[in-house]
Predict the structure.
Amino acid sequence: MFEISLIPAFKDNYIWLLRRGRQAFVVDPGDAAPVLQRLAADDLELAGILITHHHADHQGGIAGLLAHRACDVFAPAEESITGRTHPLRGGERLELLGVAVEVLAVPGHTLGHLAYLAPGALFCGDTLFGAGCGRLFEGTPAQMSASLERIAALPDATRIYCAHEYTQMNLPFAQAVEPDNPDIAARIQRVAAARVAGQATVPLTLGEEQLSNPFLRCREPAVIASAQANGARDASPVEVFAALRAWRNVF
Ligand code: ZN
Ligand code: FE
């Protein structure tokens, strides 16, 4: 397996650095400068770039990285991506730094959004966040709900490498949805302590999200009840998800 570490960018983005020996990939380089600094500091060679979706805070650094050194750019086929060399669709398989990686289609935040699954590690861009999920800029609630269910079906121990540090910001909403959920209350304490200590809350673990992320809990009676008090017309998971997402937008 490659080693995974984070490169902070902008206010709350994470660019993931995958390295094996001196070879490196980066996931969603919204900015080239911090990536170039890390490559130089660690004496790494950029072998390639992985992109989850087209937003500027995820692909804005591609041009600067390619100006430094030509490399492969793996990215969604259905989105407009700078310098893309390998257009990808869900279901494809890659080998990155000798590691088998599966491409998952996870539409919702954007229509062509992809996630990359390495053994035990999912790079999901802006699909799932700590205690939250991405906004629906392009897709429908049904699409995002299906994408999240695809992720939720992975083993609980899967580590989730999302692209933003949003966990602390998201937890008050999770608690509003489920005021009596002790896992959410405990997580609020843990996350506050981590943030005060300057630590990232990412990678997430899927098992923890299952316990405290309302968007993965659309079948829980307490979540259904809250959603129905906030616009859900029935108890179906898609309707519950749609109501939660709409409520979150104005929370
Ligand atoms: Zn985005
Ligand atoms: Fe983003």
Notes: Residues 3-250 form a domain with the Metallo-beta-lactamase; Chain A fold (CATH 3.60.15.10). The two ends are 40 Å apart (CA to CA). The first strand starts at residue 3 and ends at 9.
